[in-house]
Automatic annotation (TrEMBL), chain A:
<dbReference type="GO" id="GO:0005179">
    <property type="term" value="F:hormone activity"/>
</dbReference>
<keyword id="KW-1015">Disulfide bond</keyword>
<dbReference type="GO" id="GO:0046427">
    <property type="term" value="P:positive regulation of receptor signaling pathway via JAK-STAT"/>
</dbReference>
<dbReference type="InterPro" id="IPR018116">
    <property type="entry name" value="Somatotropin_CS"/>
</dbReference>
<dbReference type="GO" id="GO:0005615">
    <property type="term" value="C:extracellular space"/>
</dbReference>
<protein>
    <recommendedName>
        <fullName>Prolactin 2</fullName>
    </recommendedName>
</protein>
<keyword id="KW-0732">Signal</keyword>
<keyword id="KW-0372">Hormone</keyword>
<dbReference type="InterPro" id="IPR001400">
    <property type="entry name" value="Somatotropin/Prolactin"/>
</dbReference>
<dbReference type="GO" id="GO:0031667">
    <property type="term" value="P:response to nutrient levels"/>
</dbReference>
<dbReference type="Pfam" id="PF00103">
    <property type="entry name" value="Hormone_1"/>
</dbReference>
<comment type="similarity">
    <text>Belongs to the somatotropin/prolactin family.</text>
</comment>
<dbReference type="InterPro" id="IPR009079">
    <property type="entry name" value="4_helix_cytokine-like_core"/>
</dbReference>
<keyword id="KW-0964">Secreted</keyword>
Length: 243, 459
């Protein structure tokens, strides 16, 4: 509103309404300035003005994400198998690049592992898959000869994004647990060498469909591990939530 | 007789992601007793191993207990059938426990009908399968249920998430509902549907409806009858709600009489009943004045102010100011003078004639040749209030014997009469006297005969 029109408006009002209008305008200005932020960001470090989520909320979030990650990868893998290898039960003999990462193979071992090492395993797995997944997505989106790649490359992208988010999420959880004194620094479960993902495995050239298949197969398994381990971690750390 | 046929591995299943079982189909046995052995190799494990348990899961099966089960590793299974003539080995079968999870059906599915006011609802409850371990978070169970009405084949399916209970709200009475529940472990295969459970929603809730209907019908009938009654009595209702404004009435005149009588009678009645001045009007003003009959000079002057609206008996007190311009107080004076002679009586017409004594206010008379006429004879009495006097001079030389003069009033009730001595009477005093309280005259003194009318009761 131009200045002249507002003056016009003021002139035409009686004194009582003018006061009301001024008051309303002041209120609006105040609200506008004080409510700049539409939604409060979630921050785990307790910065000023943030809503700090609880450990239970964080766990809930990462478990949801891991569940999503596994279901998408599982769908992608089964679609791939239907498309390329209709006959089931293929004997894929190539090892996954995360083979050397030691992970508990059953419930008892997972429970016996303890929180610190379990957390470390999770983080190691996630770290190992960051790069290969982005490579997979790139390869799939570039290889337009196969119809499968056209329809499914966005799923690969989604998986890649989720893994990236999960890495951050688990890091936040571990920091928070350390703060709460739930987690202590202990000797790593895995030897340092195994922490370095064997990315050399994939840089030997372009990935072909077999590589895609292997990647998807391996990632389906590893995402299931991550999902399971996170649940076990949550239930051992926060048993009162009712697992 | 031949070597056995090749067995076929049918599949494996893990109900809780901690153990698993595999089954095979034996081939022909070749007519000879044939045994089967299952051998397996495992990823991250060197060597070939034989099935740890052939019995627990039944014939042609192999059960792997917790100690022998590892997740996220591939098992490569083969079954070998052997008889006396030879062996036969099945094709290798790769299995990862992660992929073969299929839980058991949920247990103890119970249905409970809750009868609420408007509509019943159905509560379904169940227990998870007995072998699953949710406490440690190893598995997360999600449930799904389906509901069928009566004998139809259409199932309605509902997701229940991780809850072990579910409520159905759109439930109709008198219908048989069939419910089944199944579950999944972390996106594994779905279990089989549980055993069917039936419930029939009872009909007795509908009995409440007729009751309500009855009440509503009764109230409607009540309203209708009340309406009828009101319509019938609308006049009296109207009177009660809006009372009529009273119309003007002429006292003494019956409106019915007016309707019936002829015009002559009407005019007579009107005239007869009318009073000049309109005394009934003045009545309301309480501007009554009394005419005091007295020979006592101490009588107070009259007061035309407000008087009590009390009744004056037959013996009047005339308290008046009479302007006498003429020698006589003729009837015109009477009629014109509005301040005078408000006879406060009780609406009874004069029934006796008598002499009325006036006291005249002589001072007010100016220059008038006033002949002091002391007595007037009442010629006629009209209505309740008007005395029409005779215009002729009345010379009273002697008072007839049947009349006495009132000598004095004693107290409120005593009238003292004077002995006959007419000559001494001299009434020239028109002084104003204050009125006395109205008197009730009674038959009193022994001095003579007093003609009185019994006094009406004081108001």
């Amino acid at each position: 509103m131009g200045k002249s029109s507002s003056h016009h408006f003021v002139l035409h009002c009686k004194k009582g309404t003018m006061k009301k209008v001024l008051f309303a305008a002041l209120c609006l200005v105040y609200l506008e300035l004080s409510m700049r932020v539409v939604s409060a960001p979630i921050c785990s470090y307790g910065q000023a003005g943030c809503h700090v989520p609880s450990l239970a909320d964080l766990f809930e979030r990462v478990i949801q994400q891991s569940s999503r990650m596994h279901s998408v990868s599982s769908d992608l893998h089964s679609e791939f198998e239907q498309y390329f290898f209709p006959s089931k039960n293929i004997m894929g003999k190539r090892k996954c690049h995360t083979y050397d990462i030691l992970t508990p193979q059953d419930k008892e071992n997972a429970q016996r592992l303890g929180r610190e090492q379990l957390t470390e395993v999770i983080v190691t797995l996630l770290r190992a898959w960051g790069e290969p997944l982005s490579e997979l997505h790139q390869s799939m989106s570039q290889d337009q000869h196969q119809d499968f790649n056209i329809y499914s490359s966005n799923k690969a992208l989604e998986i890649s994004d989720i893994v990236h988010e999960l890495k951050d999420g688990v890091k936040i959880i571990t920091d928070k647990m350390r703060l709460m004194g739930v987690l202590s620094n202990t000797v790593g479960y895995n030897s340092p060498e195994s922490l370095v993902p064997s990315s050399a495995f994939y840089t030997q050239g372009d990935l072909d469909s077999m590589d895609h298949h292997d990647l998807l197969y391996c990632f389906r398994r590893d995402s299931n591990k991550v999902k399971n381990y996170l649940r076990v971690l949550k239930c051992t750390t926060l048993p009162e939530l009712g697992c | 007789m031949s070597a056995p046929g090749k067995p076929v591995l049918l599949g494996c299943r893990s109900p809780e992601k901690e153990t698993f079982t595999c089954w095979w189909e034996p081939g022909s046995d070749g007519g000879l007793p044939t045994t089967h052995h299952l051998y397996y190799e495992r990823e991250r494990l060197e060597g070939t191993y034989e099935c740890p348990d052939y019995l627990s899961a039944g014939r042609n099966s192999c059960f792997f207990n917790k100690n022998h089960t590892s997740i996220w590793v591939n098992y490569y299974l083969t079954v070998m059938a052997s008889n006396a003539l030879g062996n036969a080995t099945s094709d290798p079968f790769k299995v990862d426990v992660m992929e073969i999870v299929k839980p058991d059906s949920p247990r103890n599915v119970t249905l409970r009908v809750e009868e609420r006011k408007d509509s019943p609802c159905l509560h379904v409850r169940w227990r998870p399968p007995s072998n699953t371990d949710t406490k440690s978070g190893w598995v997360t169970i999600k449930y799904e249920l389906r509901v069928k009405k009566d004998n139809s084949n259409n199932w309605e399916e509902y997701m229940s998430g991780t809850q072990t209970h579910f409520s159905l709200y759109s439930v109709s009475p008198g219908v048989v509902y069939t419910v089944q529940v199944r579950c999944t472990l972390d996106h594994s295969s779905w279990s089989e549907w549980s055993n069917t459970t039936y419930v029939k929603i009872s009909n007795y809730l509908q009995n409440e409806r007729p009751f309500l209907m009855l009440i509503s019908i009764l109230s409607v009938i009540l309203f209708i009858t009340a309406g009828f009654v009101l319509i019938m009595k609308r006049k009296s209702v109207k009177h009660w709600v809006v009372p009529p404004v009273p119309g003007p009435k002429i006292r003494g005149i019956n409106s019915q009489f007016l309707k019936v009588a002829g015009s002559e009678d009407v005019s007579n009645a009107l005239i007869f009943n009318q009073s000049f001045p309109p005394i009934h009007f003045v009545w309301e003003d309480q501007m009554e004045e009394y005419l005091n009959v007295t020979e006592n000079e101490d009588w107070l002057s009259f007061n035309s102010q407000k008087r009590k609206k009390s009744l004056i008996p037959a013996c009047f007190h005339f308290d008046s100011e009479i302007h006498c311009k003429e020698s006589t107080c003729n009837q015109n004076e009477w009629e014109k003078d509005e301040e005078i002679s408000k006879v406060d009586n009780n609406n009874k017409p004069f029934t006796n004639t008598g002499y009325v004594d006036f006291q005249r206010h002589v001072e007010n008379v100016q220059g008038a040749n006033v002949k002091h006429v002391d007595y007037s004879r009442i010629k006629e009495v009209k209505g309740n209030n008007v005395l029409i006097l005779e215009t002729e001079n009345i010379q009273i030389s002697n008072i007839p014997e049947d009349y006495h003069r009132v000598k004095e009033m004693e107290g409120d009730h005593l009238v003292v009469l004077q002995k006959q001595n007419a000559a001494d009477i001299n009434y020239t005093d028109c002084a104003l006297h204050k009125p006395r309280k109205p008197h009730v005259c009674t038959e009193s003194s022994n001095s003579g005969y007093v003609d009185t009318i019994p006094a009406p009761p004081l108001m």
